[in-house]
Amino acid sequence: MKKIGVLGLQGAISEHLDKLSKIPDVDPCSVKYKEDIAAIDGLIIPGGESTAIGKLICDFNLTEPLKARIKSGMPVWGTCAGMIILAKEITNDPRRHLEVMDINVVRNGYGRQLDSFTTEVSLPALSSEKIPLVFIRAPYVVDVAPQVEVILRVNDNIVACRQNNMLATSFHPELTNDLSFHRYFSEMI
C-alpha cells in the first residue's frame, strides 16, 4: 500500500484526498506536521494560494523537512500553487518557497479569476481518453533546465513537467472526474 500525503495547510486538500481514495493500493492522508512527512511515500502540494501555502510551510517549520525528503527522492507533485511552491524561479514574484525544481514559473500566468478556463487534451502516455484540464488563475512554466521533461503544453505554454521524482502541473486534476494524473503520480512511487 502506497501512503500518499496531501499537504493539508491550505487549498484543494479534500479534493485530492478524494481522488487518491479511488486508486487501488493508495492510502491517502493529510500532512501538516514534520512527523507526518517521515510517514509518507509521496506528497501532493495542492492548488490554493501560493503565498498562503508558502507562509504556512514556514510557520509549521516544514521547509527543511520537505526539502530533505524531496531531495532524497520522495515523489512530490505540485498542482497550480504547488507548482509555484516547487519552482526555483518565479518570474513575477520575489518570494521563493521550496526551490527544488529547475523551472521558472509565472504566477497567475493566465490572468485573474475571470480568465480561468477549461479544456481537454489528448495525452496518450497517460490515458486513451481525452483528459479534462481546469485552469484557475493558473501559473505556467516559462523556462526549464535540460533535466526537466516537458509533458504537456497548452497554447504554447508549459503546463505539465517532470524532473526525476518531481511532477508539476498548472491545472487542477482534482477538480475533474478524471484520475489519469493521480494514477500517473501514484506510479511514480
From TrEMBL:
Pathway: Cofactor biosynthesis; pyridoxal 5'-phosphate biosynthesis. It comes from the Bacteria. Gene3D superfamilies: 3.40.50.880. PROSITE patterns: GATASE_TYPE_1 (PS51273), PDXT_SNO_1 (PS01236), PDXT_SNO_2 (PS51130). The active site is at 80 (nucleophile), 172 (charge relay system), 174 (charge relay system). It catalyses: L-glutamine + H2O = L-glutamate + NH4(+); aldehydo-D-ribose 5-phosphate + D-glyceraldehyde 3-phosphate + L-glutamine = pyridoxal 5'-phosphate + L-glutamate + phosphate + 3 H2O + H(+). Keywords: Glutamine amidotransferase, Hydrolase, Lyase, Pyridoxal phosphate. L-glutamine binds at residues 48-50, 107, 136-137. InterPro entries: Class_I_gatase-like (IPR029062), PdxT/SNO (IPR002161), PdxT/SNO_CS (IPR021196). The keyword Cytoplasm does not apply. Its EC number is 4.3.3.6, 3.5.1.2. GO terms for cellular component: cytosol; glutaminase complex. GO terms for biological process: L-glutamine catabolic process; pyridoxal phosphate biosynthetic process; pyridoxine metabolic process. In the presence of PdxS, forms a dodecamer of heterodimers. Only shows activity in the heterodimer. Belongs to the glutaminase PdxT/SNO family. This is Pyridoxal 5'-phosphate synthase subunit PdxT. It comes from Ruminiclostridium papyrosolvens DSM 2782.
